[in-house]
């Protein structure tokens, strides 16, 4: 049985993993940038919240872990 590969944009037939890869590779930070680069979200627009969430997830993973020493100095 093939593993399920989640699709994020059904209109443009774009899968979550390939969209994530493009967001990371091209440093896309807005839904508009993703639309222009990939075409995702340019049909019915029902997937825009999913795209936004994926951008946020990529950004969160890209941020370096907080330095405990700096947090102690700031607090
Ligand atoms: S599902 Fe993405 S534009 Fe329709």
Q: Can you describe this structure?
A:
The structure is a single chain. This protein has 75 residues and is mainly α. It has one domain (7-74): BFD-like [2Fe-2S]-binding domain (Arc Repressor Mutant, subunit A, Orthogonal Bundle). The protein has four helices and two strands, in the order E-E-H-H-H-H. It has helices at 16-26, 31-38, 48-62, 68-74, and strands at residues 7-9, 14-15. Strands 1-2 form a two-stranded antiparallel sheet. The protein is elongated. The mean pLDDT is 91. The protein binds FE2/S2 (inorganic) cluster. Residues 9-12, 40-47 line the site of FE2/S2 (inorganic) cluster.
Structure described in brief:
With 75 residues, the chain is mainly alpha-helical.
CATH homologous group name: BFD-like [2Fe-2S]-binding domain
The fraction of residues in strands falls at 5-15%
Q: First CA to last CA: what distance?
A: 52 Å
Low-confidence region ranges: none
Q: What is the architecture at the second tier of CATH?
A: Orthogonal Bundle
Question: In total, how many domains does the architecture comprise?
Answer: 1
Largest sheet, if any?
Answer: 2 strands, antiparallel
In the CATH hierarchy, the third-tier topology is known as: Arc Repressor Mutant, subunit A
Query: Helix content range of the residues, please?
Result: 40-55%
Bound molecules: FE2/S2 (inorganic) cluster
Main structural class: mainly alpha
User: How many beta-strand segments?
Assistant: 2
In which order are the strands of the major sheet placed? 1-2
Instruction: Calculate the mean pLDDT score and round it.
Output: 91
């Amino acid at each position: 049985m093939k593993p399920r590969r989640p699709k994020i944009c059904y209109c443009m037939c774009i899968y979550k993993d390939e969209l994530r890869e493009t967001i990371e590779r091209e440093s896309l930070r807005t839904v508009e940038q993703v639309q222009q680069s990939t075409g995702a979200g340019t049909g019915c627009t029902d997937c825009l919240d999913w795209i936004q969430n994926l951008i946020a997830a990529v950004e969160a993973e890209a941020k370096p872990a907080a330095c405990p020493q700096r947090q102690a100095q700031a607090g």
